[in-house]
Design a protein that fits this description.
Elements lengths: L1 H16 L3 H6 L18 E3 L8 E7 L2 E6 L2 E4 L6 E4 L3 E5 L7
Antiparallel strand pairs: 1-2, 2-3, 3-6, 4-5
Length: 101
């Protein structure tokens, strides 16, 4: 019983360590650093799309600039049951409605 508990504990710790901040930092998948640990964090306007389509978020990101970002989506390839993942995208465009700070 004690041996089983030790094995389960080791497996759980191993699984949790794979989800650590260091895991993402080492692979370049974490958020980039920001000044004083906090960036501009005003909310974005989010548009939810039907299942299978990436959602869209938009907000002003600087004087005269607006960002649009999507989450990843998925679609069926048609012939078989394969699912094709559509990557997330981001774009920044000129928007005179975005006032400077």
């Amino acid at each position: 019983m004690r041996r089983a508990l030790i094995v389960v504990t080791c497996v759980a710790l191993g699984a949790l360590s794979g989800c650590s901040q260091e895991y993402y930092d080492e692979r370049g998948k974490a958020d980039g650093p920001v000044l004083d640990g906090r960036g501009e964090d005003s909310p974005a306007e989010v548009f939810n799309m039907p299942d299978g389509f990436g959602n869209l978020a938009t907000k002003c990101v600087g004087p005269g600039k607006r960002a649009y970002a999507t989450t990843k989506g998925s679609v069926s390839s048609g012939d078989d049951d394969d699912i094709v993942i559509i990557p997330a995208n981001a774009v920044i465009v000129d928007d005179p409605a975005c006032a400077g700070r």
